Structure formats: structure tokens, C-alpha cells
Amino acid sequence: MRLTVGWQGQKKGVFAVEGARARDLTAAHPEVGSDLMALIRAPELLARIGQEGMAGATVALSDIRPDLPVERPGKIICLGLNYVDHVKEGGYDIPTYPALFLRTLTSMLPAGAPMLLPACSERLDYEAELMVIIGRGGKHIAEAAALDHVFGYTVFNDGSVRDYQRKTHQWTPGKNFDRTGAVGPVVVTPEDLPAGAHGLRITTRVGDEVLQDATTADMMWTVARTIATLSEFTTLEPGDMIAMGTPPGVGHARTPPRWLRAGEVVKVEIEGIGICANPVEAEAAAGGGR
């Protein structure tokens, strides 16, 4: 199933995407709520909706203003250095354990909303990534069973402020500027994609300029292996989000570097899932953060 969360006028809800239209699941089933958490916590509800047949009015997908798929995820865990060619272009050694960092909620924004070019830096970079939304939680999850813990997959643009990322060995500052991590708008449940979202084309474009073009088959840590690895040290919970790292082609590795500029629209696309498109806006013009 293809799902999106967003606003139609003054009402926020969950919609089932059907081509260029979307069916209002929240209006037809109030227990669905206004983000994906009710469906994540009660998979039987989603199964029942699918079995009974879709009810509710449809609207044009273009009339829905996207919001975050999960309003308040407990954890947003991100992998760095998960594609060999990206590791090489960054000048790192091939890792034997994934580079990990956390994102804060204030660093996130939905598809369609402006990404902020911060006032203190011009080095805002793009990173196309597959994002996993956890359904069933757990600790010490076996790799062989890990995909059973996935609720769905979506698109992520891990906007990174490179000079701040490089100020320290810890990447936290450069990965957590307000409104730099764009996610959505469509979440696809696992039965509609290859297992582990393996082998999907992943690209970044600005206008006609193709900046990244790879496949999720190139990830060193697969979705299953990543879930198993993370659950060794933390209890994964329903609604947690995991970003799977970016392929080569990022702006800081280019000669000259290719930073995002105010007025551009950056589009990250993953085959079978969709496009996360966001305009870039200068922080001063936006009046600060959220």
C-alpha cells in the first residue's frame, strides 16, 4: 500500500495514494488518526482496511500538503558511509561497522517544504537516502527476521552542512541544522517493493542536472543487517526512522564543490517509492527556523 500524511485545507490526515489521487483514510476510519502511528501500532487495522476495500472520498494528490509521516518519532537513526564509492569520494577507509548519528526532530521537514540554507554557512549539501520506518519494535533482532519489523519505506534527503560536519569527529552539528532533513511524501509498505527495498534506483536532481544516480543494491549494510546491528545496542520502537546512507555524487566531493543554492528545487527519487522535492530557501528570508 502507498500512504501519505498531509493537510487538505485545515484538516490533517492519512491518505492511501492511488495514482494521481488519494483516498482519505482518516475520514473513513477515524481510528487511523492524523499520522501513521495508529497504523504502525495496529497492523491489523491496516490489514482490515485493505481487506474490506478502500472507503472514503478521493482527492487530487496535488491538493494535499505533505507533513511528516510520523509526527514525533522516538528515534531518527542515520547511517553514514554505506556505499563504497561514497566512502572513497569522502576520503575515508572502508568501515567494518556503520558510521551512525542521530537527527533531532527540529532538523526534519516534510517533502514540499523549504529546506533552509543556514545563515552561517553556504555549504548545504544533498544526500539521497532510503528511509525505513520501523513497525514492530524489538531488541537483539535476528537478521533473518529483521524485515518483519519494517512498516514501510520512504525517501529522505539528508541535507548536510559540510563545514559544520567537519568541525569535529562527531557529525552532529552538520547533520542537525533546522529544517535540513526532508522526508516523504509517500510511504510504501513492504509487500509492494522488493525485499528490503533492494535494487531500487536512487537519484538526486536539481532541474536537469543529475547529481546522484545509483542503486540500493550497492548498500554495504542492507536493511535487514542494519536493523539487526542497531538492535544490538538500542531497543527499536514502532515509528522509529532509519536513514540508510547516501550513494556517491554528493556536492562536497565534486570539483568545484556543488552546494545547494537558494531558489533551487532539489529532488530525490527512489524507484517504486516516489520523489521528495523541496525548494531551498535562505534562513534569513525564512525568518529563522520553524
TrEMBL record:
Q: Which domain of life is it from?
A: Bacteria
One GO molecular function term of this record is:
hydrolase activity
Instruction: Give the keywords, sorted.
Output: Hydrolase, Metal-binding
Q: Which Pfam families match?
A: FAA_hydrolase
Note the PANTHER family from the entry.
FUMARYLACETOACETATE HYDROLASE DOMAIN-CONTAINING PROTEIN 2A, FUMARYLACETOACETATE HYDROLASE DOMAIN-CONTAINING PROTEIN 2A-RELATED
Keyword Hydrolase attached: yes
Q: Kindly provide the name given to this protein in its UniProt entry.
A: Fumarylacetoacetate hydrolase family protein
Q: Which residues form a coiled coil?
A: none
SUPFAM superfamilies assigned: FAH
Q: Which organism is it from?
A: Paragemmobacter amnigenus
**Domain Fumarylacetoacetase-like C-terminal, first and last residues per copy:** 75-280
Please tell me whether the keyword Membrane is annotated for this protein.
no
Q: Which family does it belong to?
A: Belongs to the FAH family.
**Annotated transmembrane regions:** none
